[in-house]
Amino acid sequence: MFTGIVEELGEVTAVESLDDACRFRLRGPVVTEGAKHGDSIAVNGVCLTVVDHEGDEFTADVMAETLNRSSLGALTVGSRVNLERPTAVGARLGGHIVQGHVDGTGRVLERKPSENWEIVKISLPADLSRYVVEKGSITVDGISLTVVDAGPDYFTVSLIPTTLALTTLGLKQPGDPVNLEVDVIAKYVERMLGDRASAEGPAAR
Length: 205
Hints:
This protein folds into two domains: 8-84, Beta Barrel (Elongation Factor Tu (Ef-tu), domain 3), CATH 2.40.30.20; 104-191, Elongation Factor Tu (Ef-tu), domain 3, CATH 2.40.30.20. By secondary structure, it is α+β, with helices and mostly antiparallel strands. Helix content is 16%, strand content 40%. It has a six-stranded antiparallel beta barrel. A six-stranded antiparallel barrel has the order 7-8-11-10-9-12.
């Protein structure tokens, strides 16, 4: 489990295309400290498994399912990425519960800078809109953010200077894709209420 608090801005150093997958080599001095084969590291919000680790770089394989559901397929050598290690048991939950399981992708629609923050508008797939609410939590490229405004096909977030400086959202421009993970609690509640309604039957409703 992750919390959506990005530890560092890493970089893609190599991309190897395989038959139905892709292997990335990424540089991240912070997240590779003490890393070993089989560890998990979130890359732009996608939970990946460390295949190999040498110095301040690690490699990870990305299957076709992940490439189809996320924006990782658009990464090239030199791309900057948000990196986070799983949270330790007993550690502070600085953001919200993040699984590293991307639900879909959106695109940056517009940016509105101001003196001390910036409002970013991001497109929202129709099948995810019911999980996004004003002042709720959402993960964008692995960053835990609070929703400012939630529309039928978009949402907005307000970014402080630290987020702009230390994550990929400071670099994204209109049209760029971003990974989205909605609050898992909302999905569990929806499933539980649906199962309950089915069990009670039409008469109970």
